[in-house]
Amino acid sequence: MLETIKNAWKIPDLRKKLLYTLVMIVIFRLGSFIPVPLLDSEVMAQIFANKENTLFGFINMVSGGAFQNATIFAMSITPYINSSIIMQLLCVAIPALERMQKEGEEGRKKIGQMMRYGTIVLALIQAFGLYFVLKSAVVNPGWKSAAVIIITFTAGTAFLMWLGEQITEKGIGNGISLIIFAGIVSRGPQLCMTFWNYATGSTYGWIGAIVLLIVAIVVIGFVVTFNEAERRIPVQYAKRVVGRKMYGGQSTHIPIKVASAGVIPIIFAMSIMAFPGTICAFFGVDAASGGFWGWMLKHIFSTTSVAYGIIYFILILLFTYFYTAIQFNPIEMANNMKQNGGFIPGIRPGRPTSDYISRVLSKITLVGAIFLGLIAVLPIFLNGAIGINNFAIGGTSLLIVVGVALETVKQLESQMLMRHYKGFLE
After folding, report:
1. What's the average model confidence in pLDDT over 141-151?
2. Which residues pair with 247 in a beta bridge?
3. DSSP state of 139
């Protein structure tokens, strides 16, 4: 990866793209320290001090701590993530949107525009809800303060959305993904501090710290392996004679990634598991409050409980199958192959082909779902086994960081390859 970046730096136009991307990320990090007017950051930090298992905890992770510090980028890019997920689901459920998605570049532009409008609407709703949660942190409560805070939160998200699109267009990599990546990686110093405190103050000492470091390296290796792993279904195209020319006859394959669903199932599962804690946070209920909901928050919806880990794992399995079913349509794939004269060796075209793809997809999805579930619940069981709490980076963060890093390096390599061919042709 370092060699790729070094080689890319030697190419003038790629160097400009890398510098542009770096400047945009620096702007994002600088904005993460600009406070929202009329909000007391110290009171806000106290409000969310013990609310790790809420949607606010996830937003704080993605924003790199900007949420807890009450800055203009407090909501980060989460409304855009939610808008893109909703739009993907709508494209499957609404035929008109599905047709628009297949229209090519023009259709994708229209869907992208809808996604932007959806982001603004969701950001307004989220900012409105946040104002009522943070009312105790508002310096001068009232409709003027509410308007300023809500508009500031929404404008911060809109600016980040624009920033991400500029990186995608003029820089290297997917801008939105890189902003999330930068937010998570910015917690690196906190991660180092947590590791140092564990090594110097825990029962296991440096031995436990070294074991933890080895486990982290092994887990990163597994994440990289599974992120790149894919099942290739061979496809053969029959030869066709059209006029005096012969078409087809080549062999290719359909690549199906083991972890094709990415972190989306984990985000879905995390949202559901964090929902009770978020609702209780609205009404000022916590694990120490007692009663039914206090008991539930302490024993079921606490990130340190075994019940939480089991339910979380099962939800990830279910959502992985759900999201994969949305992404892949075996019947449509079989029909497209049949129309273009393609077939899987040993499998008849049509219904047998779609059944075969469904069986392969089901097996691959199971492996990917178990992998995602284990990565997501690993920090929970590490906490119970070796007693390290509030570790700054979890399974979801690790998947995002590794995935974005690998994808960005691939884009760099493809850009260098394209310029190599241009130079060869000239």
Report:
1. 87
2. 240
3. S
3-state secondary structure of 191: helix
The DSSP secondary structure of 14-33, one letter per residue, reads: HHHHHHHHHHHHHHHHHHTT
DSSP code for 39: B
Q: Is 243 left (phi over 0), alpha (psi -120 to 50) or beta?
A: left
How far apart CA 112 and CA 344 sit, in angstroms, is 35
> 231 forms bridges with which residues in the sheet?
256
Compute the distance between CA of residue 76 and CA of residue 60 in angstroms, rounded to an integer.
8
What distance in Å separates the CA atoms of residue 351 and residue 216, rounded to the nearest whole number?
45
Residues 195-199: what's their mean pLDDT? 76
Selection from 154-168, 254-268, 285-299, 410-424 with the highest mean pLDDT: 154-168
- Convert the pLDDT of each residue in 271-307 to its tens digit: 777 777 767 766 766 666 667 777 777 777 777 778 8
DSSP per position, 396-421 = HHHHHHHHHHHHHHHHHHHHHHHHHH
- Whether pLDDT at 334 is above 70: yes
Nearest by Cα to 391 from 61, 45, 49: 61
pTM here is 0.80
Where b means 16+ CB within 10 Å and e means fewer, 135-166 reads eebbeeeeeebbebbbebbbebbbebbebbee
What tokens does 247 get? Answer: 């078409």
Helix residue ranges, H only, 229-290:
264-282
Distance of CA 111 to the CA centre of its chain: 20
Distance CA 351, CA 331 (A): 7
Q: Which residue has the higher pLDDT, 117 or 409?
A: 117
User: Do residues 215 and 195 touch, judged by C-beta distance below 8 A?
Assistant: no
Question: In this structure, which long-range contacts are made by residues 244-251, counting pairs with CB atoms below 8 Å and at least 24 apart in sequence?
Answer: 248/341
Cβ-count burial of 420 within 10 angstroms (0-12 exposed, 13-18 middle, 19+ buried)?
Answer: exposed
The two beta strands, 251-257 and 230-237, are antiparallel
**C-alpha 247: how far from chain center:** 41
CA distance 176 to 179: 5
How far apart, in Å, are the Cα atoms of 316 and each of 140, 227, 264, 370, 376? 43, 17, 9, 8, 9
Would you state the structure tokens that stand for residue 221, as one six-digit string? 């290796």
Region 206-210 average pLDDT: 78
Is the Cβ–Cβ distance between 253 and 235 less than 8 Å? Answer: yes
SS (HEC) of 306-358: HHHHHHHHHHHHHHHHHHHHHHCCHHHHHHHHHHCCEECCCCCCCHHHHHHHH
